[in-house]
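note to self: dont lose this again. the chain is below, predicted strucutre after it. 153 aa total, dont forget to put it in the shared folder this time
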Amino acid sequence: MTENNSHPETKARVGWREWITFPEWSINAVKAKVDTGARTSAIHCATYEQIEGPDGDNWVQFEVEPDQRSTRRIVCQAPIIAQRSVRDSGGHEELRFFVLAKGVLGEHQWEFELSLTQRPNMKFRMLLGRTALEDRFLVDPAKSYVAGKSFDN
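---
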């Protein structure tokens, strides 16, 4: 897996939509909209609730529905790294849990902040925002699925 590159000529190119996997959560495919207009990344969760972690710290348990054509849910848990107010594209403000996600996009693996929200009616289960893209990827808005699939269905 490749690491961060700050030179434009060495950055990986991605399209306006890509497949992302989260191996630590056993999520092998989420269709993400690469959204340079969004500062933060977000994933749709059918449910989420704060729980006590193994060391008594604050964790969140959440259920991800990775495919919008299925009601299959994957139960995940992660430490809460922040709880912040986020304004969506419609101007609505929501207090969200943030976790540190270890994502894989094509041959690239990296960690980024991911907010948990409910977006059941949206076309994409995930938005990959510009802070996750920063210093790593160049977006080609005319292309889709440039990174390919790093998973088997």
